[in-house]
Specification:
238 residues; alpha/beta; seven-stranded mixed sheet
Amino acid sequence: GHKFGTIADLNKLNLSSLDNTEAIGMDNLYEASGIIKQAMNLMADFYGAKETIFLTNGSTAGILASILATCKEGDKLIVARNAHHSVWSGLILAGVTPIYINPVYLKEEDILGEITAKTVEEALIKYPEAKGVLIVSPTYEGIVSDIRAIADVAHKYDKLLIVDEAHGAHFVLGNNFPVSSTRRGADIVINSMHKTLPALTQSGLLHICSNRIKYETVIGALRMVQTSSPSYIMMGLM
């Protein structure tokens, strides 16, 4: 977030003048064809995604929507054990059974590390009926998994890869950062803009990065878990 104004001085903006709703000329997030669509296309180009959708209910909404859009009741999904609690909410809402995989344990640092491609492949071989894989990268401690290798394994078995990259929205800002999962083969990537960039709390992005999932399907799922009156202040300041 803006850290109480220490990151960006919003006092220079009249926020009330930005607070609008879906009136003629202001577009509609869930049927975007005008200014919102133009803004999301620019964001997609910036991140290297096929499509980007603005989130005004945080990465939580993006994670819920990604599960609802890719799984149906009774399906199985391979899930990293260190996933965000919103993943469990998504599994409950969708009626999906998790197949847990464990990150590497870094004994010296006493934290959980990366998910390896080998671990993912072992799970896919054991559970070929799984719809896909959902992992966290970076972790809350900043550990980044080899997304390219994991994506290659997932696609080898014709499975989707969803990456919770909530804490990596800044990865596209320079060569000093790891490469974003949007450019490493993931199918869906979720970013929390407010965690590492100066955006209002709850501002997030959902990136569709392949043809394995349809934009309309994600929008349909997002309608169910996010307000029908998305904040223009959040979208405008992303």
